[in-house]
Amino acid sequence: MGLPSPTIPGSATRVIISGHSEAGRVRKVNQDSFYAGEIPGKGYLALVADGMGGHQTGEVASQKAVEIVRRELEKSRALPPAAMARAVQVANLEIYNYASTHPENHGMGTTLTAVFIDDQVGLVGHVGDSRAYLIRDQEIRQLTNDHSWVAERVRQGLLTEDEAKRHRWRNVITNALGALPHIKLDILHFTVHPEDRLLLCSDGISMLVPEEMMMRIVRDHPPTEAVTRLIAEANERGSPDNVTAVVLEVAALETRAKRYALPPEVQEPASVDLSESMSGIRRVEEAFPVQDMFAKMRKQPWYPYRIWLLGSLYLILLFLLFSLWGR
Length: 327
Prior knowledge:
Elements: E1 14-22, E2 32-39, E3 43-52, H1 58-75, H2 80-101, E4 109-110, E5 112-118, E6 121-127, E7 131-136, E8 139-142, H3 149-155, H4 161-166, E9 183-191, E10 197-201, H5 203-206, H6 211-220, H7 223-236, E11 243-252, E12 270-274, H8 279-287, H9 293-298, H10 306-326
Antiparallel strand pairs: 1-11, 2-3, 3-4, 3-5, 5-6, 6-9, 7-8, 7-10, 9-12, 10-11
Helix pairs in contact: 1-2, 2-8, 6-7
């Protein structure tokens, strides 16, 4: 689906976004869920979630993850980085608590990969082994790191990429929403360029479609057609798992001042622990601090002594007034 009107009032940024999901050639039930659209007045959002835990368990987890994150972002008044982290935290706790009170859903969990476009700022939040890719010019870059047993062994140099694809434990996830009351959220930002394209997909596509083919399909076709072609390609290769793809195209971009500062842009995402406390959210707020007059004042060396300084100024003014009155 295309989104012809600007999301943010007064902004000329326009993103075309499309998504689709199927059960694949082998599975009878689709445990994947996605969202592709806008958060009115805030930005453009893409979500992909791949549920686990069996029929009526994994699909419940993935649906809840997508619904809760979208709901929390829509109602949040926080700045986008903290709003995204808080939305993922709420989703994890709600899914975990739901499974705890519904024995038939015990053991359910889901991956979640999110991309939020806020004009020139792209934010990525990630849990699990679904993926987000950035396609720019003639290159494709994987923005996310898989949270899986084999991916960790590849990063440690103990397995090659080819060995990981064939390994019997390739589907073992080490980090998922809803499995525990605490998770690790990878968070990353990048500078959005005009004509950038992004792909979010479940492992039903990433394990079958080579990156070079992904890049050509996404780069050379409008989002709706690119999504159709990606899923068709996975199905032609047997699609033993559910297949989900969301594609975004930055059709127009306006650079606008943001109320939050950005840390240095890096290739590797930072990880933050999210539990029932707000400590993880505060870490995100510290990494993306508020950027306004009061925030700048709080960084000044005199700020901790502001009350003493104001009191001293008040006494000096009183002294001057009494001196003038005495004349």
